[in-house]
Design brief:
The chain has helices at residues 14-25, 41-45, 57-66, 80-85, 87-108, 142-161, 187-197, 216-228, 248-258, 270-276, 285-291, 299-315, and strands spanning 4-7, 30-34, 49-51, 71-74, 112-118, 164-170, 172-174, 201-203, 210-215, 238-240, 244-247, 264-266. With 319 residues, it is α/β, with parallel strands linked by helices. The structure holds 2-amino-3-ketobutyric acid.
Length: 319
């Protein structure tokens, strides 16, 4: 019997992954946990919701034991930009949170863990084009440091305790339901909200900034595929994955083809420095070879789908 706990369930990925896992395993078997007291009603209506602070190990252990959890999708995290503004918070939530999850899993017999890593594990010394799976991990942000340490910790728990921990180095995730909070790649989501609201957008990175990105349906597909993969085929615990790469200006142009008159100006801020330390494109051939990874969305297809989805939300009065 699979009983899942999702931490960070109210966040950008968690809010959608919870619903997909509830479809697959049944609503009552997927416990959504978030630190907010009043989450999106769909999270509460489709299955159990608990408030949880992942830095509180006793509370986490109680939740896992009470619900007889067998798998944890640990998504609660502080992202890169917020992490630079509050490095102490990023360390506590990202490091202590992961350590608590791994320890509680080991002690209570949880069988499997999913944990998102990030392209933030790479840094200025890493090759920026077609960034390999095995390469220099020398990030310059606190977020990136917690992701590198987190990867090592996951590998340690797998090697030492046999815990089946799996993860993905996510690029920027683009989605239409819950906005991301505090990331460097957030401009690639914010720009769509401005376009659909009929407002101009001020982008916080230079027009020539190229970063790897992925549309949410591909993010959910990659997560499920990796978790379903035959363990004997996994050469790595944490895999590079990507969907597409584009510059901020290319994204704006693609939106302007469908929203004529949409205006974008560029005012780079401290997040430019973070973006400049990350890869432009990612080599995800290990994921393709080991568990059949292949994205469905490229830039034009993603832009079309995002505009349609946000337009519908606007018509429902949600934007
Ligand atoms: C961020 O920008 O911090 C995240 C990430 C790439 O991990 N979206």
């Amino acid at each position: 019997m699979t009983k899942i706990l999702i931490t960070g369930a109210t966040g950008q990925i968690g809010s959608e992954l919870t619903l997909v896992l509830r479809e697959k395993y049944g609503g009552e078997n997927v416990v959504a946990a978030g630190h907010k007291k009043s989450p999106n009603p769909r999270l509460v209506d489709t299955g159990p919701f608990v408030t949880l602070d992942v830095t509180d190990r006793a509370q986490l252990e109680r939740t896992v034991r009470e619900h007889r959890i067998t798998e944890i999708y640990h998504l609660a995290a502080i992202l890169s930009a917020t992490g630079e503004q509050n490095p102490d918070l990023a360390w506590r939530v990202n490091m202590e949170g992961l350590y608590n999850v791994l320890e509680v899993a080991r002690q209570t017999g949880v069988r499997r863990i999913f944990w998102p890593s990030s392209i933030a594990v790479f840094g200025p010394k890493t090759p920026r084009d077609n960034t390999p799976q095995d390469t220099i991990l020398s990030p310059t942000t606190m977020y990136g440091i917690t992701k590198v340490a987190g990867e090592l910790l996951c590998e340690y728990y797998h090697r030492r305790y046999g815990l089946d921990v799996r993860g993905l180095r996510f690029p920027g995730i683009i989605s239409s339901e819950t906005p991301p909070g505090g990331g460097t790649t957030d401009y690639a989501v914010e720009i769509f909200y401005a376009a659909v609201r009929g407002e101009p957008y001020t982008c916080f990175v230079r027009p020539d900034t190229v970063l790897p990105m992925m549309y949410m349906p591909d993010c959910l597909k990659a997560t499920l595929r990796l978790m379903e993969a035959d363990p004997a085929r996994l050469r790595y615990r944490i895999y590079n994955v990507t969907g597409m790469s584009f510059s901020a200006e290319e994204l704006a142009r693609e939106i302007q083809k469908r929203v004529p008159g949409f205006r974008v100006q560029y005012k780079p801020d401290f997040r430019q420095h973070i973006a400049d330390s990350w890869p432009r494109t990612i080599d995800d051939s290990a994921a393709r070879e080991d568990w059949g990874w292949k994205p469905d969305y490229d830039l034009p297809k993603m832009v079309e789908a995002m505009l349609v989805a946000l337009q519908k939300r606007k018509e429902r009065g949600e934007l």
